[in-house]
């Protein structure tokens, strides 16, 4: 193994399988894939006799979309259980290289691979991993698909049929070659010319597979196929030598792997044709659960009533997604498992200051983010316990710096405590309301915790105690203070609001309802995983008795994409803009206070999203147009009166069309 450094932060076994492995992509292949691509592991259902497979104990799988192949070899099978040796869960430390170690020998030597290794830090379970880039790269599959479908732009299904014919014919050619069939393919033969077309994309793939074009008239299988033919001949006296030659041949191994790639590619293509036209030999089965079982990463505790989905997103990650990554847990893990992972990472932290250092603060920020997003009592209790130990969230430090200094400060530790006291006294003199003064004192206490300055913390606590005592007279004694603090805790759990972009209060209500229904939110947030929604825009879906058009499916998928973007903004605003800013006391703890400094964070729905749901003046029904809003927000020409039931029906219809 070329990669042996396993000293990075550990992750839960379920996170390793469902997040890290599905995002492990070779550098050269990543550039050819859509942003945010994630592997979907499958295995061909057709069993192949592999002449060159010397490692039968290895587990193989393939991504159904990019055709990368994953090979896993478990070193200690006694560890392949869903609980670790200590009765909890596997905690993997891993290193996954994305640099391809390529072989220059076309006849012998190792295949081009990316190497990886994972090991549980608590038991003997360990695994070596290899990720092989596809022989038929995404640019090649896209070129062939484009060539076939562009010839039938008026009839997409017919284009898919011709693509399937080409892929299945290539599969048969490679399958025959792997069994020692040396018969060439003539370009002037009617059947091959009809099935393969022999256009540039097809010929390029055949050449990549090792077929040689002779005199522009015949494609001959690779020379190693003749050797394989002799190796399979039981009467051949040199059979053993030929078999050894096949097993050391890189070209033959590539042929066998190309056969599997063509099988999976064909299985993916034929999803776009009617079932009666599909070929049983081009079939595959899901392999994600088998991989989880192999690595003992399945069966972890999940949140009650949640879907087994991940927050999937392309490109930039949301604050909540980053929080799950920081703690190394899937987003469907139970609260107890999130807390366990946080504690485990704290125990394993080998930094200079594992309690109050940068890594500890990053972990605590993630815990605060997840706790606020889930409204979890168990995680809230852990957050409160960590605050008692002196940990402070980065958002709270940023808000305190803005309140006292007018802007965030890069290094709080570099600011002298005396300077903080002087600035605090200056701000205190400017404040007139008791609540505003108490808020400043709380901000100073936050900075005292961040600096681990006991004297500054005690000074802030004394000032706050004095201010609260004087405030009791105004708001009705100690009981009034306790009731007010109770409102503060409730307010911090409220979600972000939605801004009106016209007469759209009923639209915002529907969007907030969808966001509050957890299964719908989880399904929308899973957009991009390639499994929950019809992201390939495959035809054949129906709306009642009517077949949906490709344009209708495209509009529905765009709606789900925009809805996911809105949900991510609501989550980020709720976590970053609400709990972190600590604006609670400036308005007396009431979420509808008129004080502009205490207005809750709000998100404006995308105009294109609203355009899909609202009635337009020049239309007789809900608009499915994907153009952006032309009228200005608040314009009388923006949309006509619409019943909330009609808006909800349009929303549900779009979601159903996207499935």
From the structure above, extract its key features.
659 residues, alpha+beta, eight-stranded antiparallel β-sheet, three-stranded antiparallel β-sheet, 15 strands, globular, disordered N terminus
Summarize, please.
The chain contains 24 helices and 15 strands.
Number of helices: 24
Cα distance spanning the termini: 43 Å
Work out the number of β strands.
Answer: 15
Q: Spans with pLDDT under 50 lasting ≥5 residues?
A: 1-6, 307-316, 472-493, 575-599, 616-639
Mean pLDDT comes to 78
Radius of gyration: 31 Å
* Largest sheet descriptor: 8 strands, antiparallel
Oligomeric status of the shown chains?
single chain
Q: What is the approximate shape?
A: globular
Q: Strand order of the main beta sheet, please?
A: 1-5-6-7-4-3-2-11
Structural class: alpha+beta
The percentage of residues in β strands lies in 5-15%
The percent of residues in helical segments reads 40-55%
Provide the fold topology.
Elements: E1 11-12, H1 13-20, H2 27-30, E2 41-44, E3 59-63, E4 69-74, E5 91-96, E6 114-120, E7 126-132, H3 138-150, H4 156-178, E8 185-186, H5 190-196, H6 200-208, E9 212-214, E10 218-220, H7 224-231, H8 239-247, H9 250-269, E11 284-286, H10 288-294, H11 319-327, H12 335-348, H13 358-374, H14 377-388, H15 394-405, H16 417-430, H17 434-451, H18 454-475, H19 477-492, E12 497-498, H20 505-516, H21 518-525, E13 542-543, E14 546-547, H22 550-579, E15 602-603, H23 607-613, H24 644-658
Parallel strand pairs: 12-15
Antiparallel strand pairs: 1-5, 2-3, 2-11, 3-4, 4-7, 5-6, 6-7, 8-10, 9-10, 13-14
